Amino acid sequence: MESFFNIFAWTMATPVPYSAFHIFISITGLFLAAAGAFLVSSRLPCSRVLFFAGLFLAVTEVLKQGFLYYIQGQRHFDWWYFPFQLCSIPMYLCLLYPFVSSRLQNVFRTFMEDFGLLGGIMALAEPTGFLTSYWFLTLHGFIWHFILVFLGLFSFFDRKKHGHNKSAAAFHQLMPLFLFCCIIATGINIWAGPEGNADMFYISPYYPSLQPVFHQAALIIGIIPGNLLYLAAACLGAYIIHRFLIFVSSS
Description:
Blueprint: H1 2-6, H2 20-41, H3 46-72, H4 89-96, H5 102-125, H6 135-161, H7 169-192, H8 214-221, H9 223-250
């Protein structure tokens, strides 16, 4: 297995945020994600697109985990990379999508439109977490978040195609899923312990959030209040996107 993952171990100079590389690949990827979402939404059924997107994300995540374990981690597992960040959730939702009720499908799609778009855009705006010295990991990070943007926009365009406009109430119906994911993330963080380096959803109870601004806030008001502030800000950001999409769909 180590020999297999060595095939992907091409090194690079770690890209700098807001460098020409970052700006070029981000603009190109966002354009392709938006154009692809618009074109595919008029040609393929939603269930098939979401499931196969989830399958693609899952396969690439398995490859990433193998690479991290055998190459970067030298056969040591790092809980920091466990796949349960906010940007990981659409992968699970896409895989489950064909097998749940229509009510849950609507919730899943709202999550991808609101929190998925938020996570994809914010990660591309501040990409430090996936800019590495390996081409494979860096490109994986960019492609993953381009797909999040694609999924959110695809779901939105598909709704418009079928005349199903977003409603304000849909965001409130989404919150139990978000809170459920937060509980799981907290459980993983606690189970891994203070030495495990797990920071799912960036709400570890053991050390301040590493997210810009919220790290400084946690140093001032405390870790738990800082985590709650971060989650509240994430909800606010998702709600702004939700309202913006309602405005666009009604215009």
